[in-house]
Amino acid sequence: MSLLKEFKDFALQGNVLDLAIAVVIGAAFNKIVTSLVENVIMPLIGLIFGEVDFAEKWSLMGIKYGLFIQSIIDFIIVAFALFIFIKIANTVMKKGEVEEEVDEQTVLLTEIRDTLREK
User: Fold this and answer.
1) Rounded CA separation 116/119 (Å)
2) How far apart are CA 53 and CA 17, in angstroms?
3) Distance separating alpha carbons of residues 54 and 58, to the nearest angstrom
4) Domain-by-domain residue ranges, the chain?
5) How far apart are CA 58 and CA 96, in angstroms?
6) How far apart are CA 64 and CA 77, in angstroms?
7) Does residue 48 have a pLDDT over 70?
8) pLDDT digit string (tens) for 18-47?
9) How many angstroms separate the CA atoms of 79 and 82, rounded?
10) H-type helices in the chain, by residue range?
């Protein structure tokens, strides 16, 4: 019975739930990016090179390097989005740390001031 309780405590921790939510959102975001690349970007590239289905038709001896290029574009978009997200998250977290540090310093200085007044 203790093992079940430990598992329940583990599964309901904030970190595990946050991770599960992040995985679901990441999967949904991946679908959006894949659709963007397949249905918008690759047809535009196909128009530039004169082929409607760039990804499928660009192949050499059965090797579909057009699909590989599509996957690379997919990866670059996801990586860039993650980079921007992490950059914003780090900025927000640093602001919180600075505010917390200032609050801590203010409390300490107030305590020192009050102690000196008493003497």
Assistant:
1) 5
2) 41
3) 6
4) 2-92
5) 50
6) 21
7) yes
8) 777 788 888 888 888 888 888 888 888 778
9) 5
10) 2-11, 14-36, 42-49, 54-57, 65-118
